[in-house]
Amino acid sequence: MSRSPVVSVLRSAAIVLAAATVTVAVTACGSGKPSSAAAASPSSGASASSAASPAAAAQPGIVAVTSAGALVTLNPSTGVVAQTLVPSGVIGDEVSVAPSGLVYFAVQNGCTNTIEDVPVGGGSVTVIGPGSVPAVSPDGTKLAYASQPSLTIGCVPNTTDMTTLYQVNIRTLSSGSTISLPPVPASQDTGLPEPITHLSWAADNQYLAVSIGQVEDNEGWDVALVNTGQAQYYLTGTGVTSVPVTGNPTPKQSYLYEGVYMPNGDLFVSRACCAGIPPQNTSQLLWEVNTTGVLVHQVAIGFANLVHGSLDVSSDGQWLLYLAGTDLYVSESGATPTELTTGLIAAAWASLG
What we know:
Layout: E1 61-66, E2 71-74, E3 81-86, E4 90-97, E5 102-109, E6 112-119, E7 126-130, E8 132-136, E9 142-147, E10 167-172, E11 178-181, E12 196-201, E13 207-212, E14 222-227, E15 240-242, E16 254-261, E17 267-273, E18 283-289, E19 295-301, E20 308-313, E21 319-324, E22 327-332, E23 338-341, E24 344-350
Antiparallel strand pairs: 1-2, 1-24, 2-3, 4-5, 5-6, 6-7, 8-9, 9-10, 10-11, 12-13, 13-14, 14-15, 16-17, 17-18, 18-19, 20-21, 21-22, 22-23
C-alpha cells in the first residue's frame, strides 16, 4: 500500500445509513430537521486546533446549481441569486471553479452527460466533452471528471458487466491529453458498478479524493485517495488508499458518504450511520478528519433524514460549505454552520486570484 506526502491511510469497507444516536448536541423533534446545524466538541484526544482561525477571512463568492438546473452565482452574505450563468440543464452534485474564474459543470442531454465551462462573470459556454462531476485542480492545470452511464429509466446500458463503463479521467487542460483510470483490474471485475459521486483535488495538484456511491444492497460507499501520478485504477492497486471510518457511532456500521480535501491535507467528510436494509438514517455528521480517518474537529451534527453532500472547502481552508438535502450551509473556520439558502443541488466556493 502506497504512501503520499499528504496521504497515509488504511483500506476500509464502508456501509450504509441507519442506527445509533449521537451524544453531542441537538436536533429538533417532530420533522427531524432542526432550525440550524449544531457544532460540537471533538471526541476525547482529538485536536481542535484547525477549527480556530487567527483572523476572520474574507468570504469568497459562491457558485451553485438550483433544483431547476440553473447555474448561478449567489450573494455569499444573503444567498440571493446574483447572476444566472446557464439557465437550465445543469446537474449536481458538483461544480468547480478554477483560479482563472472558469466554472466547470455538467449538463444532461438525454442519456448523455457533458462537461462545459463558462466564466464566473458570465459569457459564452465552451463544451469540454462527455463526463460528469468535474473537479479542477487548485493550480487550474488539470480537470478530473467521471465517465459513467446514466442509470435513469431508459438509459441503463444493456450489459452484464457495468464495471467497464466507469472511469476517472484526468485531463491536462492546456493540451487536452487525458489519462483514464478504471475502478479495478479485469481480474477483479465483479460486473457491479462503482459509481463516482464526487471528486476533490489535494493542494499538491496530484492526489485526488474519489467518493464512491452505493454499489449494491446499501454497500460500497467509500472515499479513495488516488495518486494520479502512479495509480492505474481508482479503487485499488499502487497509489490508491481508502479512508477508514473511525469514531462514534459504531465505525463498523458507518460509512463516508463524501469526502473532500482541505488545503492542510485533512479531509472534510460527511459521515453516516448505520448499516441496515432499509437504512434508518439516525446519524449524519460533518467532520474534519485526517487521512487515517481520525476525527480532528466536528463541524456539525447533520439531519438524520437528509443526505449531506456537495462538500467544498475554500482555497484558504477557512470556509466550508455543504448541502443538507437542498439547503446550503456555510461554516467559517469550522464554527457552527448557518443555513444560507435552499433549493440547490450543487454548490462551490468561487475564490478568484
